[in-house]
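Need the bound structure for flavin-adenine dinucleotide, inputs here:
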Amino acid sequence: MGHAFDLAVVGGGIVGLALADAWLSRYPGDQVAVFDKEPHLAAHASGRNSGVLHAGFYYAPDSLKAQLTRDGNAMLKEFCAERGVTVRPTGKVVVTKSEDELPALYELHARGQANGVDIELIDESQLAELEPLARTHGHALWSPNTAVADPEAVVEALADRVRARGGDIHMGEPVTAAGPGWLRTSTTTYSVGHLMNAAGLYADRVARWFDVGREYRMLPFKGLYLYGNWAPGHLQRHVYPVPDPRNPFLGVHLTVTVDGRAKIGPTAIPSLWREDYGGVRGANIGESIDLARTYPRFLTSPHHDTLGLIRTEMPKYSRRVLAEQAARLVPSVRAADFTERGRPGVRAQLFDTVNGRLEMDFVVRPGERSTHVLNAVSPAWTSALAVAAHVVDALER
Ligand SMILES: Cc1cc2nc3c(=O)[nH]c(=O)nc-3n(C[C@H](O)[C@H](O)[C@H](O)COP(=O)(O)OP(=O)(O)OC[C@H]3O[C@@H](n4cnc5c(N)ncnc54)[C@H](O)[C@@H]3O)c2cc1C
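Answer from helper R.:
Posting the output first, comments after.
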């Protein structure tokens, strides 16, 4: 048996690092280790996202997402200020593609207010002042607290703070099995006081070792991006459409990177296996077979417009189609100006086989001597510090 840890975290993405950080801040001097299977940080969702600090207005008022995104946005900004990580205060506008979308826009505004988020209903002339490139029909929403940072820089800074607080980060050490009080990696078996599961695309598998979350199946969705060649700062604000409330994705949008570049995406294309970043590299036939078993349930679910989602998402492999979608929000977008593909990401989206729905909220489940963070999909990058405080607060030692 190797070393003994008071806390071991499986997964060194932003959620796992935030959990270790919150634990060490509460219990300084404890032995804490984070294990990640990859040799370098931010290899998966935490380094492959839009870097948008969401404000928290989309989510059902009683959800963890609503509470932890609003709080997480403020905590992440404070963290970045303290650690010298640049945050670009872009704000964000939500625009309509036609007047038919106005009732849904008003609904979103009301939801934001119910969530205690600063959100303003604006008219076309106010939109023209805030973001001259965007177009709307009648009204738009303005979210001043939405911002952007470099996702990898944030992860690196958080890893630095975990190390500074005395935590060990074991990169390139996959956890191959675990149970109450122990954990096995590719090299060693460790004794563990408490285990936290933040394994992202594999969190459902780790949870099963503890008999937790058996109703869930992973249904990963791929996000592709296109960078524009516009001068930095040409687009000033993130520009989003009104989302379809039947699914948990926000629709193709334009974001500004921390360096001021314009970026289109991400898509929400069904993935063929968990770490399906394109091409056949890393193809996993076993995972594809599992997915093929889950998809029929999703396809026939009365709760989602699955066929509509597939019909609209699959064509977005085409650069031209993606640019056309973005041009409905920002008419000056031309496919010829958006030719550089970004690093794709995959969402660790769970499907609940009992109620036949995609899980819309973050899920935190206790297990024997363990805690499992499941469905850490967007905006868990924004919310991570608040998620971790919530998890550590709820644990009695
Ligand atoms: C395309 C896209 C765009 C997004 N945009 C935004 C955004 O703008 N704003 C926002 O707030 N959120 C966004 N998100 C969501 C956000 O990226 C995720 O919610 C967040 O990164 C989840 O963090 P995580 O630590 O749970 O996952 P990950 O970063 O995936 O970390 C999980 C880690 O677990 C490791 N792991 C898995 N299995 C094992 C094992 N057996 N042993 C050891 N290690 C293991 C993996 O190597 C990985 O590093 C986006 C996501 C995607 C995919």
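Comments: The longest helix spans residues 64-83. The first strand starts at residue 4 and ends at 10.
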